[in-house]
Design brief:
Length: 282
């Protein structure tokens, strides 16, 4: 298997379904191919109603971004962004303020190619073709440095991406590297697939994703909690997504038969651990 860890992006693959376009198909978007639409239909047959889980992820993203905007966050780094359509981050921000910056990052070349024209008229948003498993190259990319001021608080989104990172790539360590790079006042948003509530459904889902270019790595909720490290998890804490500050009248997870997505929002406080700098010289 090719190790893509230190390469800027993975190989283009339009034979197997890709996570970005499967998600777009479930959201009702137009940036997907027959292979992803057929795949989505087969999952829907095996797990009736599963489409609501994908839509709930996008609704969680909207609610968390509105929450961060209300807390004064104005710049966002969205890792594993997918194609920014159907209510993505910059659209949510644009409804609230003119003063925002969004850098999307994805490692799937066609996803990035599809995204560029969508962002062409939005100078406050850009997309970087990069692998989130390489924090150094993401944080030091010219696009990041130009668009974001990393000396000011950032909203870091890792929604529905870390379950595509295998344990062998140390997902806890890489999220820690991003947390350490952010200044106090920054926030981390995570959503992640879990089988804690519905192990059989998640097993079926993971079997499907084994056919794709993005195999799935579901994890227990107790493991997902660890992603927030020494950040302060904000109320209501980590939850199934439908229970995270639901809109008035919105069904909560009790109405969601699968409860496969879990996450939350946390903030870096001024007294968070200062990362130890390597000692240089002899
Ligand atoms: C399901 S989409 C999530 C989209 C968006 N974050 C959301 O929650 O609405 C997952 C995306 O993560 C991307 N992805 C997977 N592994 C990645 C990696 N190592 N680095 C960057 N992007 C990655 C996929 O290409 C895909 O576009």
């Amino acid at each position: 298997m090719v190790d893509t860890r230190n390469s800027p992006a993975r190989q283009m693959d339009i034979v197997r379904p890709a996570a970005a376009r499967i998600y777009d198909a479930f959201l009702g978007g137009s940036h997907n191919f027959g292979v992803e639409r057929g795949f989505a239909e087969r999952i829907e047959q095996a797990l009736p109603g599963i489409g609501a889980t994908y839509q709930e992820n996008r609704a969680f993203l909207r609610r968390t971004v509105e929450f961060l905007l209300a807390r004064g966050v104005r710049q966002f780094l969205d890792l594993g962004s997918g194609i920014p359509t159907i209510g993505h981050l910059h659209e949510v921000a644009r409804r609230r303020t003119r003063d925002f910056r969004v850098l999307y990052v994805d490692n799937e070349p066609l996803t990035v190619a599809h995204s560029r024209p969508l962002l062409a008229d939005e100078p406050r948003a850009d997309i970087l073709l990069a692998d989130c498993r390489d924090p150094e190259s993401v944080l030091h990319a010219p696009e990041t440095q130009e668009l974001l001021d990393l000396d000011r608080p950032v909203g870091l989104l890792m929604t529905s991406v870390l379950h595509f990172v295998p344990d062998s790539d140390d997902p806890l360590g890489l999220v820690e590297a991003y947390r350490d790079a952010l200044v106090p006042g920054s926030h981390l948003v995570v959503s992640h697939v879990t089988g804690t509530h519905a192990p059989e459904a998640v097993r079926v889902l993971a079997d499907f994703y084994a056919e794709t270019s993005d195999p799935l790595h579901p994890r227990e909720t107790s493991w997902i909690d660890k992603l927030f490290g020494d950040f302060e998890v904000l109320p209501p804490g980590t939850t199934y997504l439908a229970d995270w500050r639901p809109d008035p009248g919105q069904p909560t997870s009790a109405a969601d038969r699968y409860q496969l997505l879990y996450g939350g929002v946390a903030r870096k406080s001024a007294d968070a651990r200062i990362p130890v700098q390597p000692v240089s010289g002899g």
